[in-house]
Amino acid sequence: MTIYGWTGKMLRIDLTRKKITTIDTMRYARMYIGGVGIAARIAWEEIGPEIGPFDPENRLIIMVGPLTGTLASGACRVEVLGVAPQQHPPCFSRSGMGGHWGPELKYAGFDGIIIQGRAEEPVYIWIDDGDVEILSAEDIWGLGTYATTKDLRSIHGDDVRVISCGPAGENLCRIAIIQTETDNAAAQGGFGAVMGSKNLKAIAVHGSGGVKIARPKEFLDLCLKQSTEGRSPYGPRSLREIDISGTNFRRHKCGFCLSVCSGMLWMDIQGEFLPVPYTTEQMCYGFNVTSERGRIEARALVSNYGINGWEVSYGIIPWLQLCRQHNLIKEIDGMEIPAPDKPIRYLRDCAPVTPEFLAMLLRKIAYREGPIGDALADGACYAADRLFEGKGKPLLDRIYPRHAGQVEHWAGHWGPGGNIYWPMWLTTVLQWCVDTRDPASDTSHSWTSHVQRYLPKIGSYRGPIPPERIREISMKVYGDPNVLDPSVEYDPPEARAIPAIWHTDMGMVVDSLILCDNEYPRIFSSTSKDGMADIDLMAKIFSACTGVDVSMNELMKAGERIFNLLRAIDVRNYGRSRRIDESTIDVGFNYPGKDDCKMLDKQKFLKLLEKYYELRGWNKDSGWPTREKLEELGLKDVADELERIGRIG
Amino acid sequence: MISEFKVQRSGVIIFDEKRCVECRECEVACSLFHEGECNPSLSRIQIIFDDFIPRFPLAVVCKQCDWPACYYACLSLHENPAIYIDERTGARVIDENKCLGCGACARACPLMPEKPVIKHKVVNGRRVYFKCDLCKDREGGPVCVEICPSGALKYVSAIQRRGMK
Fold first, then answer.
1. Is the CB of residue B52 less than 8 Å away from at least one CB of chain A?
2. What integer is the mean pLDDT of A177-193?
């Protein structure tokens, strides 16, 4: 039988035994779709609590999904999973990236790669359609990600796509990333260091196959329709509307996507005023630097060293400035750490750094230079354990909820990501409480940067949907009229708990198909008559692609299954519980929101958390999934295992 | 025979390198429309770029020449030629059912020898050549132009090109 969408095969590469085998994707696809879903199942079966991030037995699971490499907008993305060293303490987590590597892997004939073991000597993996080889990386070990990519292209051909770790990954920096080309990286989690620990420098892919589509005409029409649904009520609806006259920038998207977001490739094209050889202006983060050129150059440095720029820009540098204000440190290598005169309460209060300071800092991190560089290479949370006799630890509170290793993101407090307003951030805080990574990635981008912007009046937003329509749409989408009503705060608790669950489960679907969390799910449209997007669109696209006809409810059920499985891994391996969930609030959110000065009321918030557990079908006291819920989701074996270790809800 | 060498002017797809965002959706849409699968290697258009080479992207797609060497080659070699001129768009089109897979058209084409605009594939064990046909029977015109998110690809019809020397 022809398989549509999926390629039907995943690779398992054991670097210790130099053994390459394939796994039948379809064994997992019905229950777990692909991407994060299949990876979660594999992790449940193969990653036990005893496995640390740098153990050879840790799995580096690099996944694409049934929609990867198709015309569906955002179909370029890759999900990377494994025990994540950046997490504090390490736990099984995930990170995603765009670019052209994912589709290439799909065209080479694979739905994912599971890497285990540790090579004796540095190696890279070369995949040329069905042929897979483990080759010596002796000549490229030590190089930056840019040179690695260029070298592998000179060996294997110009059209080869590469992911690699830089010096930071080789040096097991816990904030090392997996980089592809100039502009995309799986940055959160430290998976570059997992590559480094396996002596794996890079994976180069060339694929000349395609993705078979069950109903091509319908699929094409759906994708064309999707491209005309305005995602944001503000700004251009399409890249076609952007005036580029008088500019000489090369524009560059992360690929296989129709959305409005696009970076510019800063290159030495004639007439260009920036002298940097190549780096891309990414959408999601930036450095606060005293020089614009310095800012652009720093981006090239983080990509080439393979460092998590988000963590450096929004975590490490602000934490150093806080330490400076508290007289724990004044300078590094004779270079003064800049700090503002007034106390740092939010990210926006931080002082810009000089380009020379930033260049020095990034080098020290990548190469673990000196005691400071060695400590900061693991991110601020690990550094705070080691430096200044632990006196810097309380200063992490504003930046890192639960000191879990990742910076607050779209939760309305510290500041990176964007503006999310009261009471909408109650939902992202809830998501943060129960997840293993910063929530506003896959789980809540659509809530924060899509849904919120359509509301009639919230913060600085004046969306186009009239208030009376909002409650109606809310009822239709979430089954509760209060969800989209900003005048509803803690009560009824469903108003904030339902979207936390809805967007998390949707996020799991998006990460398993895999599409872009910046594109899906869509609720509103700036071009449709009634202001609503086609909520079933993802299910329609999936059905037309794979020929497996599903409703949006069935996809959501799969998303719920996947998140419950991730929770089960977290509970079984790392003892995740309500106590840990709650500690997010204690550490990270005991100060007012940055845009609305609203304080979290702990007692009221706990009611939301309890409602969340209840709606999830998890035990309210322990935060553990119940047998009923797991069995309903077809996860009886998971329930049995949790019961065996006494952690069933 | 001589009269057959005089052909009507075709419409053409034009490319604005500064608008292109290098997303490759044109390649995917093209292969999806023509071949029923998403497969850039079966696309009739290709965007060439390298993050590490400082130049704007290139689009490799048939220019629908006024004096099409591919068409002449096919016409000269075969009694029942596979290439014909589409009346509505003027596209120089390969009829896959008639193509014998000789490759004379591809060899005759002067465009981008290292990245050909006339490629071949195997259909039911038979080698056939394929090239851009401007999606001649498609209601909305060329699918790559319609999908292009940045407006880098545009379609200029034969009528719009009238009077061009």
1. yes
2. 94
> What digits encode the pLDDT tens for the residues A204-246?
999 999 999 999 999 999 999 888 887 788 877 888 888 888 7
Which of B17, B19, B20, B21 to probe by mutation at the A interface, max A CB count within 10 Å?
A: B21
Residues of B in contact with A267 (CB under 8 A): 54
* Min Cα–Cα distance to chain B from A229, Å: 12
Closest CA to A89 of A521, A416, A576, A596: A576
Q: Residues A455-471: pLDDT tens digits?
A: 988 888 888 888 889 99
pTM confidence score: 0.96
pLDDT averaged over chain A? 93
Does B121 lie at the interface with A, CB-CB under 8 angstroms? no
B39 and A209 within 8 Å at the Cβ level: the answer is yes
* Alpha-carbon A624 to chain mean position: 24
- CB contacts of A262 in chain B (<8 Å) are 21, 150
ipTM: 0.95
Question: Which DSSP string corresponds to A580-614?
Answer: HHHHHHHHH-SS--TTT-PPP-HHHHHHHHHHHHH
- Contact B51/A at CB under 8 A: yes
- Which of these, A409, A431, A381, A434, lies nearest to A579 by C-alpha position? A434
| Distance from C-alpha of A65 to C-alpha of A81, rounded to nearest angstrom | 14
A-chain residues within 8 Å CB-CB of B29? Answer: 71, 220, 223
In three-state secondary structure terms, A293 is helix
| Mean per-residue pLDDT over chain B, rounded | 94
pLDDT (tens digit, 9 = 90+) per residue, A396-417? 998 999 999 999 888 888 988 7
